[in-house]
Amino acid sequence: MPAGAEGWQRMYPYFLVSQPEGQPAEDSRFWFADSMHWSRAVHPFDSIGAEAVYYGAGVNSARSIALPSALGLDVRMVNGYVYICPLPVTDPAEIERRLVLFQERAGFYYKNWDDLYARWQEKMLVAVRRMKALKFEPLPEFEPLEVVTEGRGCSVSWDLVENYHRLINDFFLVWQYHFEMLGLGYGAYLVFFGLCKQAFPEIEDQTIARMVAGVEGIAFRPDDELRRLAKLAVELGLGEVLDSRDSPDEIFAALKRRTGGERWIAEFEAARDPWFDYFAEYGFMHDQETWNGNLVIPLQGIARYVGLLQAGEEIDRPVARLQAEQDEIAGEYRALLTPAEATKFDEALGLSRAVFPFIEEHNIYVEHWSHAVFWEKVRELGQVFVKAGFFKETNDLYYLNRFELDQALFDLVESWAIGVPARGVQHWHAEIAERRKIMTALRSASPAPAYGIPPKEVTDPFAIMNYGVTTERVADWLDQTAGSNNDGQLKGIPVSPGVVEGLVRVIRHEDELSQLLPGEILVAQITAPSWASAFSVVSGVVTDIGGMMSHAAIICREYAMPAVVSTGFATTRLKTGQRVRIDGRKGTVTPL
After folding, report:
1. pLDDT above 80 (res 207)
2. CA distance 357 to 337
3. Where do the CATH 3.50.30.10 domains begin and end in the chain?
């Protein structure tokens, strides 16, 4: 625990923090930092994400589709960071019992996948619209007259309480939707990966992945919009305006003075809804921005593409090449199989390709569109507290967890109703000041990638495919934590082939992407989908976490860029300006 962070445990719900009576059992398990979704120490209110995510993951894996060899992912806050623990099923009899349930339930989903996905999309859009409709308005001096004349008998202040509960409920609901089909999607991948490994023991994981990954869909749409706008800017002769370091207001003012500028602005505005409701990171923390919230981000992406176009480079995604490559690789391996084996291969590959759109696109609906609305509404609620004099500033809200905020909200409306000062004002002003100091201390330290006793085998599909937490990676992380690797070389999962040397650029936040220079090696805890335009600048990618089907892996294969993910320590052991060699086939990062 960093100095100055004493007492951090009280900021979070008790069930997210280790308790003395459960400590021995928890220490005997394996925990790894979910730095993919929470790259920094988490404010108390933001811990709602850890609750919702792993409730949704657990209920789906363990209780709904009944994965045979894995339960849910347990979750704890440790020094302000989110750690999770895969829970395997090891009893053969229990695996068999669960397998019967799984086959029936998974079979139904696989058989009706397209229809269920269409229904899923509509459910998500309904939830997003419902959250958007919620209102958090300041408390009036008196109830509106219509409360009396319409005989409502219920205060408008109660709308605040009800709408807060509705917002929280919908946040948890969309995270159940998130996992409704995700485990089955990753399960289909694992079956295909296993079949290929059995038939072709020497085949590389990234080769298998290249047969599966889709190349079209709404997951790529936000970045495609940036490319489209860059092309239009060059066509209209506006490239130099966008390729400036001016503020968004200055850029738009300059565009309005240019022929074609109004047309370009209209196209930009049309793209914003919904494609710029897109987080710079993953949208799990209140201080992460959407493109709509910070127009510098998409404008920088457009400027990067403008620069490439003006240099004569091609910026279109190589969709035709990727599709041809998929079919070519699959055909080569299929030709080596017997007819019976080829039939199984076709079925497994077909299912993996069928589930891929959901795997890539679900984030748009959940982490981006629904989270964008959620944080917007939370900010509106914070403004209600500020206007009432309960909080000094809107950001004070995030130093309370969701249960404490519920109490504070009732304190606010009851004291307003009675006509007395809210009792929480003095209490929370002092406590928030203390929690600010604690959060500063927590964010000054980097989390260990993992701790505890490693399992004999990692079986959870989310841990393997998304996080890159495999049996081998666990052992290597713990070895490196113990200091057994003294040569400085980092090992990870090779996800895109090629060898490249270059200077490191450690990126901890998307605001820093503008610092990237051509040919540098991008090193980050994880890359976010919105970083796509930066991939056109760098020569290689290294991440702390991420699996074979993580976004970083998929995009690097698309760009034919050497990449190593799940190194565990890259952002803490490599420094900007350091020269390294990446081997995207061996999975090594070697300081030079």
Report:
1. yes
2. 27
3. 488-591
At residue 82, what are phi and psi to the nearest 5 degrees?
Answer: -90, 125
306 — pLDDT class (breaks 50, 70, 90): very high
Q: How high does pLDDT run on average in the chain?
A: 91
Structural contact between residues 513 and 497, judged by C-beta atoms closer than 8 angstroms = no
Distance separating alpha carbons of residues 366 and 128, to the nearest angstrom: 9
Whole-number pLDDT of residue 214: 63
User: What angle do the packed helices 205-212 and 182-199 form, to 10 degrees?
Assistant: 130
Query: How would you class 436 by CB atoms within 10 Å of its CB: exposed for 0-12, middle for 13-18, buried for 19 or more?
Result: middle
Q: Which positions ≥6 away from 456 have C-beta within 8 Å?
A: 471
Cα-to-chain-centroid distance, residue 338? 41
Question: What residues have CB less than 8 Å from 569, skipping those under 6 apart?
Answer: 449, 480, 490, 544
- pTM of the entire predicted model: 0.91
CATH number of 488-591: 3.50.30.10
Find out whether 512 and 428 touch, Cβ atoms under 8 Å. Answer: no
Q: Which tokens in the block code for residue 539?
A: 């020569």
Tokens of 56: 């949704």
Q: Rounded to an integer, what distance in angstroms lies between the CA atom of residue 163 and that of residue 158?
A: 8
Give the Cα separation of 523 and 526 in Å (integer): 8
79-126: per-residue pLDDT in tens?
A: 999 999 999 899 999 999 999 999 999 999 999 999 999 999 999 999
Q: Taking the mean position of all CA atoms in its chain, how far away is CA 142?
A: 43
Under a CB-based contact definition with an 8 Å cutoff, are residues 373 and 167 in contact? no
Burial class, 290, CB count within 10 angstroms (exposed 0-12 / middle 13-18 / buried 19+): buried
